[in-house]
Amino acid sequence: MGDKVAIITAGGSGMGAAAARRLAADGFKVAVLSSSGKGEALAEELGGIGVTGSNQSAEDLERLVEQTLERWGRIDALVNSAGHGPRKPLLELTDEDWHKGIEVYFLNVVRAVRLVTPVMVRQKGGAIVNISTAWAFEPSPMFPTSAVARAGLASFTKLFADQYAADNVRMNNVLPGWIDSLPATEERRQGVPMARYGKSGEIAATVAFLVSEGAGYITGQNIRVDGGLSRSV
């Protein structure tokens, strides 16, 4: 087998870009999707493929997967990052807002996974990591559409893991707390037991572990990377 290949969606900045950099440093060939054009620039820097498009577009994702397979012939890892959905007081969210949240935080994963899973099944192996949120199970009124959609993503992940574990295709979620790609406030920092924001690189390192052979027996899980913020088991 030649080089391993990773696709990163919403990878132009923040945690997605950090994951792309880390996987490239670990020896992966990387293909990056980003709506801003930053993903193309990053991919060029890393010697990979960059596509400007949206993970809310099946056509853009198909283009990314096709270019990846044309160039390297395989896909070993898929990292699904996401943009930002609507944020309002709970009952001020319209039906349209909720639909948008599902698009941004849930269907972004489903679309990419539909395309990549058959490739991984044929290869008899692959790993998918979705960047979720620490508030998926302890919802915050600050992020209502994210919390609701990503609770659904946790269910989807377990269903996927149950179905594809025997094919050696794994899926896990990373649940970041307050990360330094967000504006910092002292109040939020003090609410974290570690009394600091996490680093994008720490999320990227968790992603890198979850797609590695060392994590080969981990699937269907939600891994909290939040400085001790979460209280639930």
TrEMBL record:
InterPro entries: KR_dom (IPR057326), NAD(P)-bd_dom_sf (IPR036291), SDR (IPR050259), SDR_fam (IPR002347). SMART domains: PKS_KR. Gene3D superfamilies: NAD(P)-binding Rossmann-like Domain (3.40.50.720). It comes from the Bacteria. Signal peptide: none annotated. Residues 4-181 form the Ketoreductase domain. It holds the Pfam family adh_short_C2. Belongs to the short-chain dehydrogenases/reductases (SDR) family. PANTHER family: 3-OXOACYL-(ACYL-CARRIER-PROTEIN) REDUCTASE (PTHR42879), NADPH-DEPENDENT REDUCTASE BACG (PTHR42879:SF6). This is SDR family oxidoreductase. It comes from Azospirillum isscasi.
